[in-house]
Design goal:
Blueprint lengths: L1 H26 L11 H16 L15 H27 L7 H28 L2 H4 L5 E7 L1 H12 L6 E8 L10 E3 L2 H10 L4 E5 L8 H9 L4 E4 L10 E5 L2 E5 L7 H21 L1 H14 L5 E7 L5 E7 L23 H9 L6 H7 L3 E3 L6 H10 L12 E3 L1 H4 L9 H16 L3 H15 L7
Helix pairs in contact: 1-2, 1-4, 2-3, 3-4, 3-9, 9-12
Family: Belongs to the bacterial sugar transferase family.
GO molecular function, one term: undecaprenyl-phosphate glucose phosphotransferase activity
Pfam families: Bac_transf, CoA_binding_3
Length: 461
């Protein structure tokens, strides 16, 4: 396993060399070009070392990577490639000060080629892995177990273990109250007596009990019988269908988190890495545009360039949200009035910025500071939160994650004024869906669709 991981990391590093050469051939006709200097050669030689250092954070070398779906694997590869891409830009802009000679087309094509070649590399690695018989060879080292329980959890467990090449367990027998539909190699048992005999005769190391409180099995009798053997008993609590949340230990006691977000600590790391790198690249690439917008705002009306407003972040903690100022200076007492269509407070420049959502660009600074994420529920004014949290059930669940510049609700048409509870309810429902179904690939999808349809529309003003 360790040898496979090291081999993949080495090949991924070499992939960037090949990708850079291919891109140079397409863009320049040769790698060294007198009009561009040697910054491209420097990037090609540095990219393997960058990849070696940053790509493990994307999780693409973890044990069991080949068990995940194609989209998840592609998402991890893309995250690793983008991390190398972003680090390369940072080196050129900040360390080498050669941004004026860097060909964006060449570096972008290098990213695409590296992503495609890394994907092909994993397809080949997976095929070699299967042909070499690793899945069959590891079978003899698996701990032999028997399972007992109701249909759904037992069937799910057997399927998961049978499809897991790196799992340390193999199901030899199952005692279940229904046809589990497992492969013929799993012995189907009918009674506790059969289970007890099977455990003794076949030297079963563990018996996993997955009881359903509503079923008819006498679990006390099962435990009493099996305790008289040398096998290890392992109890898996099966909760009612209504309880489907995250299980863990708190102060040494088992517990279920009833309103858990799906993102875990590893997901937080991947999301944070993507946020910081993506926002830094955006701010560097769009710095001329940001400067032009700042000048236009100053010329259009008196007042500061940036509009600062308190918003609630993750955990309900307040932070200062940044936007380009789009309205004339005015005072509001103890309330925040939502912007409306043809709002007289909006300046001419501000109307264009709001229509194109360019007023949101300073929030990439919030992302760099760690207050926001690129993708997440949009932050609302504190006063709006105070109101809607009493009107809409689970409204504050949105703050289980960092607020975002764009989100699932925004690409599904929930933009602009929320002048009715129904509009806000739909926005909240979509935000909760995002939190419940988060994945890195979903974030990539949202960013992709935002680029095409999320920045403007009939509801944006």
């Amino acid at each position: 396993m360790l040898l496979r991981i090291i081999t993949l990391r080495l090949l991924d590093a070499l992939v960037w060399l090949l990708a850079g050469e291919l891109a140079a051939e397409l863009v320049f006709g040769r790698l060294y070009h007198e009009d561009y200097g040697n910054v491209h050669q420097t990037l090609i030689y540095l990219s393997p070392f960058i990849t070696w250092l940053v790509s493990p954070a994307a999780g693409q070398y973890r044990v069991g990577w080949d068990e995940e779906g194609a989209l998840k694997i592609a998402g991890r590869i893309l995250l690793g490639c983008f991390a190398t891409f972003a680090c390369g830009i940072i080196i050129v802009y900040i360390v080498l000060h050669q941004s004026h000679v860097l060909s964006r087309l060449w570096w972008g094509l290098t990213l695409l080629f590296a992503f495609a070649l890394s994907g092909m590399l994993r397809i080949v690695a997976f095929g070699v892995d299967r042909r070499a018989g690793f899945r069959r060879g590891i079978r003899s080292y698996k701990r032999r177990i028997a399972v007992m329980g109701s249909e759904k959890p037992v069937k799910a467990l057997i399927n998961r273990l049978m499809n897991d090449a790196d799992a340390g367990y193999r199901v030899e027998a199952a005692l279940c109250d229904a046809d589990i539909g497992a492969a013929s190699e799993v012995n189907k048992l009918q009674t506790l007596e059969q289970l007890e005999t099977f455990v003794y005769q076949h030297h079963i190391r563990e018996v996993w009990l997955m009881p359903d409180p509503e079923r008819v099995y006498d679990w006390r009798e099962a435990i009493t019988r099996l305790e008289n053997t040398a096998t290890t008993l392992r109890w898996f609590p099966v909760m009612p269908a209504a309880v489907t949340e995250k299980f863990g230990y708190c102060a040494g006691a088992p517990s279920f988190e009833l309103n858990a977000a799906v993102i875990d600590s590893k997901g937080v790391l991947h999301k944070t890495l993507f946020d910081r790198l993506f926002s830094l690249v955006v701010l560097l690439m769009l710095s001329p545009l940001l400067s032009a917008i700042a000048v236009a705002i100053k010329l259009s009306s008196p007042g500061p360039v940036l509009f600062r407003q308190l918003r609630h972040g993750v955990g309900g903690k307040a932070f200062t949200c940044l936007k380009f100022r789009t309205m004339k200076l005015h005072q509001e007492q103890d309330k925040v009035t939502q912007a409306k269509t043809h709002d007289p407070r909006t300046t001419k420049v501000g109307r264009f910025l709001r229509k194109t959502s360019l007023d949101e660009l300073p929030q990439f600074i919030n992302v760099l500071m760690g207050d926001m994420s690129v993708v997440g529920p949009r932050p609302h004014a504190v006063q709006h939160n105070d109101y809607y949290s009493h009107e809409i059930q689970r409204y504050m669940f949105r703050h289980k994650v960092k607020p975002g510049i764009t989100g699932w609700a925004q690409i599904n048409g929930c933009r602009g004024e929320t002048d009715t509870l129904d509009k806000m309810q739909r926005r909240v429902d979509l935000d909760i869906y995002y939190i419940r179904h988060w994945s890195f690939w979903l974030d990539v999808k949202i960013v992709f669709w935002t680029a095409f349809r999320g920045w403007s529309g009939k509801h944006v003003y």
